[in-house]
Design a protein that fits this description.
The protein has helices spanning about 10-20, 25-40, 65-70, 100-105, 155-160, 165-180, 205-215, 265-275, 315-330, 345-355, 400-415, 435-440, 470-475, 480-495, 505-515, 535-540; strands spanning about 45-50, 55-60, 110-115, 120-125, 130-140, 145-150, 185-190, 195-200, 220-230, 235-240, 255-260, 260-265, 290-295, 300, 310, 380-385, 385-390, 395-400, 420-430, 445-450, 455-460, 530-535. By secondary structure, the protein is of the alpha+beta class. An eight-stranded mixed beta sheet has the order 5-4-3-6-2-1-7-8. A five-stranded mixed beta sheet has the order 9-10-13-11-12. The protein is elongated and about 90 Å long. It binds adenosine-5'-diphosphate and magnesium ion. Adenosine-5'-diphosphate binds near residues 31, 64, 95 and 98.
């Protein structure tokens, strides 16, 4: 066969590349909203009519002059970068100069815009090559209104490839949610078929936004941390669901944003999930939104046109910082104490304690210095040989002794997994080859000892003195990784509930527990501590009823 290679006509090139940027209603929304944000908008009103394939985005951003309006939709035109060097200084969401032009190729585009310094605005209707077809003056407020209609009208097969309207609208909503989380100062009003669909109010704290976006999550269940890294001129913002209070059955809310854009970063998402390891119940995933603000020369956004994939310099450095930040957020200390909500009855008091407890949700924790100040905890007494009543300056706690100790031992074991020789050896009977292999994998010294018998000559330090050592080793042989073995040993060795503790033992346990990296849950994910803070107690006992000094007020 004879063929010739020819350069493609520009329209064909544009049609091909347009499809890379705009492939759905959600991608139209993403591109238009990002333009509004780049224009400094603080209020964005969207209207989506999926059956008409129409999206309208109105903003109160800086608007465009007539000159810029006429150029806005021509191919590869942008106000955001000029040179190659600018690609390493990207502070805007857009920079490729493709979106509006692609939209003129795939849909009808009309823009109304009034520049902040002008007295009136302009309405421009664009042709399919991005040229301004019709220009008229209009009276509008400063800002921009972009209307895209008849999306994919010129290439109907694209519509057929898309999922149902409901699914597309779900994707649109998810897109808006994600962008809103990265821009907490913006007010969003979203209509579907000209009827109000949802709104998002601006918030000072990301946690307040997250609880608007995921209704099942209460703001009280979230903890925030902002960590400045001055030597890198960077900052890590974290909002996470406290592991004793909220988690999900899918990792759908482990989200990472870099410089105001949600990205798909398997590596960073995995770092987050790993930081929650052994703090959540089995098969549950954390809620965590991580926002990395780093200097733009660290990032290459040109991995895909939607900019959802990036190349990040020094990935392992960031992974380390993130793990450290999450660990810091788990801690319980004087800065994470917070007032509880109203309580009127015991039930509500307990509920309030669960909801607000001892954590600080409204203040960001200072990143250094006194965050590590331990609370002064005092063991008061033991109830039912199971719970330790703890007094601290902000109220009281009930700490379950077994799981608090389990947490202490588990972290000790993670820090030093010591295998010590045991004499005489523990003899085990009828082990399967995989059990033997498993014991070798966690570094136990095991060898055949005769017909169906094995001798275990070294065991984890904590098990050495135990009467149930053989049973414990059998448990370890059933599989799992080293961490699973450490949990099993910690659980077996921890003080049982029902054991009477002396004052000194309780005090020592509390102090050890407070120093753990994650005092909130045991390695199986159970909450360790129920908190009854002073403000909740004061409300419950109606301390604000001024009855008289003689009543001890
Ligand atoms: P990019 O965002 O990559 O620059 P676009 O095709 O999305 O490319 O937009 C082209 C240009 O039009 C932008 O660089 C910007 O100057 C201008 N523009 C688009 N939307 C708006 C808006 N809502 N407000 C102000 N200017 C806008
Ligand atoms: Mg853009």
């Amino acid at each position: 066969m004879v063929y010739t290679i020819q350069a493609l006509p520009t329209e064909v090139v544009h049609l091909i590349t347009a499809g890379e940027v705009i492939d759905s209603l959600a991608s139209v929304v993403r591109e238009l909203v990002e333009n509004s944000l780049d224009a400094g908008a603080t209020r964005i009103v969207l209207s989506i009519s999926p059956e008409q394939w129409r999206v309208r985005v109105a903003d109160n951003g800086c608007g465009m002059t007539l000159d810029n309006l006429q150029r806005a939709a021509t191919a590869h035109s942008t106000s955001k970068i000029r040179s190659c060097a600018d690609l390493w200084r990207i502070n805007s969401l857009g920079f490729r100069g493709e979106a509006l032009h692609s939209l003129t190729t795939l849909a009808s585009l009309e823009i109304l815009s009034r520049h902040t310094e002008e007295d009136f605005g302009w309405q421009v209707v664009y042709g399919s090559g991005g040229e301004a077809l019709r220009v008229e003056t209009v009276a509008i407020a400063p800002g921009t209104v972009v209307t895209v209609s008849n999306l994919f009208g010129s290439c109907l097969t694209r519509r057929q490839g898309l999922p149902t309207v409901a699914q597309q609208m779900k994707a649109v909503q998810a897109t808006i949610h994600q962008i809103a989380l990265c821009h907490p100062h913006v007010t969003w009003q979203v209509c579907q078929n000209e009827r109000q669909w949802f709104t998002i109010c601006p918030a000072i704290k990301i946690g307040q936004l997250l609880s608007q976006i995921i209704p099942q999550i209460k703001h009280a269940d979230l903890q925030e941390l902002k960590l400045e890294i001055p030597e890198r001129n960077s900052c890590i913002s974290l909002v996470l669901g406290l592991p004793d209070r909220c988690h999900r059955h899918r990792p759908d809310w482990v989200r990472v944003a870099v410089n105001k854009r949600i990205v798909n970063s398997q590596e960073l998402e995995q770092t987050i999930i790993s930081a929650f390891y052994k703090t959540l119940p089995r098969d549950r995933y954390p809620v965590c939104f991580l926002h990395l603000c780093i200097s733009p020369e660290q990032i290459n956004w040109n991995r895909n046109p939607a900019k959802t994939e990036i190349y990040l310099n020094e990935l392992s450095y960031w992974q380390e910082q993130i793990s450290g930040a999450i660990e810091q957020t788990f801690r319980i200390n004087s800065h994470t104490i917070k007032e509880s909500v109203h309580t009127t009855r015991v039930g509500q008091l307990l509920k309030a304690a669960e909801e607000k407890g001892n954590y600080n949700f409204n203040r960001s924790i200072p990143s250094e210095g006194n965050t590590t100040t331990p609370l002064s905890l005092k063991a008061v007494c033991q109830i039912n040989n199971t719970y330790i009543v703890v007094e601290h300056p902000g109220g009281m706690w009930l700490v379950e002794q077994h799981i608090a100790h389990e947490r202490v031992l588990y972290e000790q074991l993670c820090d030093s997994w010591q295998i010590l020789p045991i004499e005489p050896p523990v003899i085990l009977y009828q082990l399967s080859p995989s059990q033997v292999l498993q014991l070798q994998r966690i570094n136990l010294d095991i060898e055949p000892f005769g017909e169906q018998l094995w001798a275990v000559r070294s065991v984890p330090a904590l098990l050495q003195q135990r009467d149930d050592c053989a049973e414990a080793i059998l448990e370890l042989s059933w599989g799992g990784d080293l961490l699973t073995a450490q949990v099993a040993v910690a659980c077996r060795s921890a003080i049982r509930n029902g054991t009477l503790l002396s004052q000194q033992e309780m005090q020592q346990l509390l102090e050890q527990w407070q120093r753990t990296r994650n005092p909130r849950t045991c390695p199986h994910g159970r909450p360790i501590c129920l908190s009854l803070e002073e403000p909740a107690l004061a409300r419950f006992f109606r301390r604000h009823w001024v009855i008289g000094k003689s009543h001890g007020i």
